[in-house]
Amino acid sequence: MSLSSILSGKKVGLVLSGGGVKGVAHVGIIKALLERDIHPDIVSGASAGAIVGALYANGTSPSDMISFFKDTPLFKYSHFTIYKPGLFDTDKYFTSFKKYFPINEFEGLKKQLYVVATNLQTGQSQFFHKGELLQKVLASAALPPVFSPVNIDGQLYADGGIMNNFPIEPLIDTSNFIIGAYTTAFKEVEKGMLKNSLQLSQRANLLMLHANVKSKLHIPNLLFMPENLDSIGVLDKRGIEKSYNIGYDYASKLLDNAFNNF
After folding, report:
1. pLDDT tens, 22-31?
2. DSSP state, 11?
3. Which DSSP symbol is given to 2?
4. By CB neighbour count within 10 A (0-12 exposed, 13-18 middle, 19+ buried), where does 249 fall?
5. HSE toward the beta carbon, residue 183, CA cutoff 13 A
6. Residue 211 burial by CB count (10 A; 0-12/13-18/19+): exposed, middle or buried?
7. Please, where are the H alpha helices in the chain?
8. Which of 250, 252, 243 is nearest to 25 (CA)?
9. CA-wise closest residue to 177 among 77, 29, 40, 30
10. At 236, is the pLDDT very low, low, confident or very high (cuts 50, 70, 90)?
11. Contact of 180 with 165, CB cutoff 8 Å
């Protein structure tokens, strides 16, 4: 019996972590799932996972998702800002996103979607799943200090991964089977890899991100944690294709083993 037949009639949830360009591995994972006739019904995502989750929930094919990431500029001179906290004005990315989301509402999606963002003023994470869509997705992916926070109802929101990099909570009571994808590459490093302030800061940020998910990684019924993503820079667009291929190859092997086990 195949895994897809076992999941037949069950509501399948998919949780997608952040990870910047590493998060493009989610696209490869989704492609591997779809090829095996596994179609998650409800998605929850943070940061890059919120973007991929929104694209999937909108019915976007994996190949078009890759086109989205390649076509959307990360660092565009006209997006540079001196009037907001952050180097680039997150609101100016709205036009690029709108091309892929003609209906700018959660209710216009083909699948149910939750995205998480961090309220910088209250210090709390918040889930969004109704009403205006793109503002919340952009907020979830607004990595400080590169991208400016997004104003939602008079409050400033930034990257959802800051406080919840594996937003599985909405799926626990709404799904019969949960699939998790965690692409924030984490491994032990040698002492020689922490030689300067930048490396130290990046390592500390990674440890903080990982700390807020460790206790949740055991919850999914099936968990993808692709290896070899650590060589890809968080905001390095040159790593898009590599990240996608790593996610696809890893998920394909894991799923084939899962089929054999079932």
Report:
1. 999 999 999 9
2. P
3. -
4. middle
5. 38
6. exposed
7. 3-7, 25-35, 48-57, 62-71, 94-98, 134-140, 169-172, 197-211, 240-261
8. 243
9. 40
10. confident
11. no
> Mind giving me the DSSP string for 222-256?
EEE--SS-TTS-TT-GGGHHHHHHHHHHHHHHHHH
- CA–CA dist 128, 107 (Å, integer): 12
Q: What count of other Cβ atoms lies within 10 Å of the Cβ of residue 90?
A: 24
At 170 the three-state DSSP class reads helix
> What b/e string do you get for 31-44 counting C-beta neighbours within 10 Å, with b at 16 or more?
bbbeebebebbbbb
Do 170 and 129 touch, CB atoms closer than 8 A?
yes
d(CA 208, CA 135): 26
Query: The whole model's pTM is what?
Result: 0.92
156/207 Cα distance (integer angstroms)? 24
SS3 string of 181-198? Answer: ECCCCCCCCCHHHCCCHH
Region for residue 10 given its phi and psi (left: phi exceeds 0; alpha: psi -120 to 50; beta: otherwise): beta
Percent of the chain exceeding pLDDT 70 equals 87
pLDDT digits (tens, 9 = 90+) for 149-203: 999 999 999 999 999 999 999 999 999 999 999 997 666 666 666 667 655 666 6
From CA 175, how far away is CA 50, in angstroms rounded?
A: 18
For tokens 């290896």, the residue is 227
